[in-house]
Design goal:
Layout (H helix, E strand, L loop, with lengths): L4 H9 L20 E4 L3 H14 L4 E4 L15 E2 L8 H19 L10 E5 L2 H17 L4 E4 H7 L14 E5 L3 E2 L2 H14 L3 E3 L4 E7 L2 E7 L2 E4 L3 E3 L5 H6 L8 E12 L7 E4 L4 E5 L4 E12 L7 H14 L8 E11 L6 E4 L5 E5 L9 H14 L13 H4 L17
Parallel strand pairs: 1-2, 1-12, 2-8, 4-14, 12-19
Antiparallel strand pairs: 3-7, 4-6, 5-6, 9-10, 10-11, 13-16, 13-17, 14-15, 15-16, 18-19
Helix pairs in contact: 2-6, 2-9, 3-9
The structure holds flavin-adenine dinucleotide (FAD).
The site of flavin-adenine dinucleotide has 38 residues, from helix 2 and strand 13.
């Protein structure tokens, strides 16, 4: 089933009866060439690129719940390539390029909107730091424009520019940054993988990993045992638990992050904005809701919901930056479980167990990484070599301390990244 303007028109005129399911409801087979544990963004994109780029199609994606039920369908949908440090820089640049061709590649409308991201700064020191970041982005081939107060005012006139405590000195504008419809990204990859023969198996929780003589041989699941000599783990906030099934203790803590959406409003915010003096970021969804979020709740948890103090903190930051937001009614809030590493950067690596590969540690920035992550992780799983744009994400850096990618400069404390 291909989507096209003509098809949409025809279906619209004939009662929309010709659309089929986007992927098959596959039952597990006894054995696969590769298994991906976790049907979030990273698992689905890995399966898709394994099939598309490496010709591996006898693959199963095992998802304990439903596609889109994890963080891939819970995030604030910000897509950007504005990293400073080597390691992250080239990887997110790689991911951004894939985003830019994704809808054509998947033949699926993921509503990728490059509406521009503006990171505000509120002091001279912060301006210097953002100028430096902007130069690093430009050196990487990405786009960055340093705006002064008037430059920001032209684009975002509704902000509180003269707040006594946090006056707006300017912003780092990243025109190619923006948003995408999060669950459509999961659905688009699921459909694309399924079309290439990948079995997407929902309601199938992995409960054990079978290992013989130091190599994986398969998994135990709630739908029976399944054999495979190649297994990729892409379970985001559950990474520690699944790695423990293979006897590993990962340098990861799971923390809860909340997000919020207001009632639908007429178009008012046409960029992605992030406040530089409190953790607060906001955009407006295509349905009109203001989608915003802030910091982690700061305690480790597996509960996909947060607590009131962080809600209060986020609302305060929003009111400080744009007092008009006080008129909007919050419709919903929710949480997701973040796989936080000690340096705030991900792990894409082989594990000490032969045939078992790890993809985790996305902290709260893994949505924008979905295309890039699938592309480089499938490369690693298929060839056993690191993709040139993802050589820095090796597990060993946490043992040796060499090659840490501490973008925030906060040191080895998971919840501060
Ligand atoms: C509130 C919030 C806001 C965020 N905002 C942004 C943002 O604006 N921009 C950005 O880039 N990132 C953002 N993120 C981060 C981003 O959403 C995550 O880093 C990313 O989605 C994680 O990867 P994933 O999609 O594969 O995870 P998930 O969708 O969580 O996928 C993992 C899957 O593994 C499954 N699983 C777990 N254990 C098992 C098992 N034993 N067997 C089988 N399946 C299992 C889970 O059910 C889940 O579906 C945000 C996250 C949250 C929660």
């Amino acid at each position: 089933m291909r989507f096209s303007g003509l098809r949409v028109l025809k279906e619209g005129l004939t009662g929309n009866k010709g659309w089929g399911a986007h992927w098959r409801d596959a039952a597990p087979k006894p054995e696969y060439d590769a298994i991906i544990i976790g049907g979030g963004g990273h698992g689905l994109s890995t399966a898709y690129y394994l099939a598309k780029n490496h010709g591996l199609t006898n693959i199963a994606v095992l998802e304990k719940g439903y596609i889109g039920g994890g963080n891939v369908g819970r995030n604030t949908t910000i897509v950007r390539a504005n990293y400073f440090l080597n390691g992250n820089s080239e990887f997110y640049s790689h991911s951004m390029k894939l985003w830019e061709g994704l809808e054509q590649d998947l033949n699926y409308n993921v509503m990728h909107s490059q509406r521009g991201l503006i990171n505000l700064f509120h002091s001279d020191g912060q301006r210097d730091a953002f100028a430096r970041r902007g130069n690093a982005m430009a050196n990487q081939g990405d786009d960055a424009v340093l705006l002064d107060t008037e430059g920001v005012r032209k684009m975002l006139p509704y902000l509180a520019f003269d707040n006594t405590r946090f006056p707006i000195y300017g912003g780092l504008y990243h025109p190619r940054g923006g948003t995408a419809r999060h669950d459509a990204v999961a659905w688009g990859y699921a459909r694309g993988a399924d079309m290439r023969g990948v079995d997407i198996i929902q309601n199938c929780e992995v409960t054990g990993i079978d290992i013989e003589n130091g190599a994986v041989t398969g998994v135990q699941t709630t739908r029976g045992a399944i054999k495979s000599k190649k297994i990729g783990v892409t379970v985001a906030g559950r990474s520690g638990q699944v790695a423990a099934m293979a006897g590993m203790r990962l340098p990861i803590e799971s923390h809860v992050l909340q997000a919020f959406v207001t009632e639908g409003l007429k178009p008012v915010i046409d960029h992605v904005i992030s406040f530089g003096m409190g953790h607060f970021y906001i955009s407006q969804s295509d349905k009109g809701g203001l989608v915003f979020g802030g910091d982690l709740d700061f305690y480790a948890s597996y509960a996909a919901r947060g607590n009131l103090p962080m809600k209060e903190h986020v609302m305060e930051a929003g009111m400080t930056l744009m007092p008009m937001i006080g008129k909007a009614k919050v419709l919903r809030s929710w949480g997701g479980i973040m796989d936080m590493t000690p340096d705030g950067s991900p792990i894409i690596d082989k594990s000490p167990v032969d045939g078992l590969y790890l993809n985790c540690g996305w902290c709260y920035g893994g949505f924008k990484a979905v295309p890039g992550s699938g592309s480089v992780f499938s490369h690693l799983m298929a060839t056993d070599t690191y993709h040139p744009d993802a050589t820095g994400f090796q597990l060993d850096r946490f043992r040796t301390g060499v090659g840490l990618i501490d973008e925030e400069g906060t040191g080895s404390q998971h919840n501060l990244h």
